[in-house]
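Human:
I keep going back and forth on a fold encoding question. Comparing notes only helps if you start from a blank page. Show me how you would write down a chain together with its backbone fold. Write it directly below this note and I will take it from there.

Assistant:
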Amino acid sequence: QLQASGGGVVQPGGSLRLSCAASGSVASIENMNWYRQAPGEERKLVATIWITGSIRYVDSVKGRFTISSDTTRNMVYLQMNNLKLEDTAVYYCKSASGIWGQGTLVTVSS
């Protein structure tokens, strides 16, 4: 299972750090992803971290978001800086094997 947390309400320009806790050894052996779903939109991939350490971001978050993992703790993180109104969404972690976390709401509002 995956358990996402860390969402909240933040002003534009603010920061949040999302966490995704994996049960068992999901995060230590799989590529992990963060997705988000904005109101009225489909769920979209935001960032991926491979077990090799390679990382990929969607263009809209490059330079602002950082995905990382701690395999010793089975955790995946998404550090989000300089948040914008359009970052408002429910954020989900997802393993390469198709396991979804329950989502955590990020609201960027002035």
